[in-house]
């Protein structure tokens, strides 16, 4: 069975900018980054890819021992889980992913294990002024709530 994950959207805000995934845990106030293969894995999680599919895609791109790739991917996924950035989902909870999207991330010829960088230096500031919706004018707006018909 292929383990699958989803981004913990209820508490995580994230963006990929210039080949780097930036994630903020809105409850802890910690923020994280990953580039290269780590950024690619973050994107694949967002696309609904399973662990085995991610490892197979990396094995196709790099001449490395499959066990080494699997070990480093598992370590990265464990870091994401331990910081509650992703959740493990049941196979039936998400639709199967579509075709692999092209990426502009430059991975190079050498395999560099994915690394999750964690930062807590701005925790107090981020918790004091959490991310909120902003109008085009730049003024914050309260989060919209759904109204039942």
How would you characterize the overall build of this protein?
The chain is built from 4 helices and 8 strands; from the N terminus they run E-E-E-E-H-H-H-E-E-H-E-E. It is of the alpha+beta class and 149 residues long. It has one domain (4-141). The strands form 3 sheets. Strands 2-3-4-6 form a 4-stranded antiparallel sheet, with helices on one face. A hairpin with a 5-residue loop joins strand 3 (20-25) and strand 4 (31-35). The longest helix is centred in the middle third of the chain and has 17 residues, at 66-82. It starts with a strand and ends in an 8-residue tail after the last strand. The mean pLDDT is 82.
List keywords for this structure.
alpha+beta; 4-stranded antiparallel beta sheet; two-stranded antiparallel sheet; 4 helices
Helical proportion? 25-40%
Describe the sheet with the most strands: 4 strands, antiparallel
Give, in order, the helices and strands: EEEEHHHEEHEE
- Based on CA atoms alone, the radius of gyration comes out at 17 Å
Shape: globular
Strand content: 15-25%
How many domains comprise the coordinates? 1
* Average of per-residue pLDDT values: 82
- So how many helices? 4
First-to-last CA distance? 41 Å
Query: Based on the structure, what is the oligomeric state of the protein chains?
Result: single chain
Query: Looking across the biggest beta sheet, what order are the strands in?
Result: 2-3-4-6
Please count the beta strands (DSSP E, at least 2 residues each). 8
